[in-house]
Amino acid sequence: MKLIIYQKPTCSTCREALKLIQASGQPYQAVNYYEQLFTKAQLKGLLKKAGLKAREILRTKEDLYKTLGLAGSRHTEDELLDLLVAHPDLIQRPIVEKGETAMLARPAETVKRLL
Fold first, then answer.
1. What 3-state class would DSSP assign to 93?
2. Is 77 helix (H, G, I), strand (E, B) or coil?
């Protein structure tokens, strides 16, 4: 089963996770989600596979997080998904998918669970 890593190539954690995947010899696909934007349905599906909620993958240290007033907000899951799709900088990365399983690979070594 092929792994898919949703990443930002300039992200050090993404690069580290990608090196681990490459070293495993498993087939994979690297997707730059800044070039191939997530759809709401796709992101919702990945989160479901990972057992995560949208709030759990928010990058809380991003200026945009503060600008949008997301700390302590009462946004619904649907509203947060819309924000994540519209603003990929808000998404923690990398997200790695293998079949019916997905995970937020932070720290990068956690990707080994899927290898």
1. coil
2. helix
pLDDT confidence of residue 11: 96
Helix spans in the chain (H): 12-24, 40-50, 63-67, 77-86
Q: What is the DSSP string of 13-38?
A: HHHHHHHHHHHHT--EEEEETTTSPP
Tokens matching residue 12: 């050090």
Q: Which domains does the chain have, with CATH numbers?
A: 3-114 (3.40.30.10)
Q: Which residues are catalytic?
A: 11
Strand, helix or coil for residue 112: helix
Mean pLDDT of 88-101: 97
pTM: 0.94
User: Could you tell me which of 35, 43, 46 has the C-alpha nearest to residue 80?
Assistant: 43
Residue 73: CB atoms within 10 A of its CB come to 14
